[in-house]
Amino acid sequence: MNLKRSVEKNLKKWYEGKHRKPLVIRGARQVGKSTLVRDFAKAHNLVLYEVNFERFPGFGEVFKKPDIAGILREIEYLCGKGKVNPQNSIIFLDEIQAAPLAVKALRYFYEDFPGLAVIAAGSLLEFTLADFSYSMPVGRIEYLFLGPMTFEEFLQAKGEKRLLDLIREYDFSYNFPVSAHNNLLQLQREYLLVGGMPEAVQRYVETGDINEVIDVHSSIIETYRDDFAKYAKGAALLRLQKVFDYVPAAAGEKIKYRNIDENSQARDLREAVEMLVKAAVITCVYHSKSSGIPLRVGKNDKIFKLYFLDIGLMNRVCGIQNIPLQKLESREFVNQGKMAEQFVGQHLLYSGRRNETPRLFYWLREGRSTNAEVDFVIQVDSEIVPVEIKAGKSGSLKSLHRFIFEKKSGRAVRFDLNPPSVMRVSHKIGSGGKVHEIGFSLLSLPIYMVEQLPRIFRFF
Asked: Fewer Cβ atoms within 10 Å of its own Cβ: the N or the C terminal residue of the chain?
């Protein structure tokens, strides 16, 4: 079964580019980096010369000397596919973090064989490079960041073409069909348990059995835990495990190190957080003042919240088993709000340019009498947009009102479980002993339409 990924268009653009450089695909383990390259080569009738450095650990020694012609001969004989033809071949260096010498050699591929398509993929590059005295060959490579499969990719894998076309084309020129909305909510609930790890999606599409998915999740989680032991020992390893177990249950909460482990120093826990961020297993979403663009200029490194790589894995780490899907929207299910934030967050994270490190921000105002927090703040073109997440069909917008007042915003976004709508909101808000009236346009979208936010926002 071939799981289509939207990022294939980025790969095609890179391959057809006139100034193509070696491409490094980055992302957490098992998000589908290797499969993406293999499927691309097959779809475009390209000869794939694949070298997996974990499978052939001694092969990294071939890269000791910057003799690219000699390296290519070694690759040709290892793969047994004859002489490399730059016109129809791809050199794929997989798990390149296991061969730091090969990382260094990427610049020489670019300089000596600029017409040759070279792709490298690695899950833990930052860990490897930290142990060596050199960095990535700046200016000689390109990046492509890959995350879990999205909800729309999940729909495509399930063959839900009509529903997929509907959300990709909807433009408010007609009422969103209620039956389609209900079907999409049901499919979204499935995604909350399955998540976007390709193996989990494939197993669910093939079997329809969530227990099969749970087995996949458990295997992936244990693989991650095994990785920790490669890069930390003793107390440092225990802190990694504590952070790994803490984040899924506390997704979207402002980080307080004592809540992770009251017996560890904050600096040690911060180091554990940074290591898992480097491995792309968790994501830091930082507070931004949101007073101007780019948002990261107003970032506060000390105020942030954490999200997990994937909502399916998040729920598995939390201990969620094969619960009935209808329970996911009942009051008995205490994790509703965190799941809604995780779902939206992991989609927004990869909604920007795929050749830049994914970043996401939020807004927090902590005062003596009033606190306010907007779940996410994004940039659409030159506009800063506050985004609120509601796990149900209703909920207060007090924090959003405060943001609108303080930042003088004219438009905002809310995700909830209602069909899409646009409304004009007027509200009175107190500040400095006075009452002020604010007005703004609110774009309200069902959570499952998060990937369509940039498109829809531009014409609402």
From this structure: N
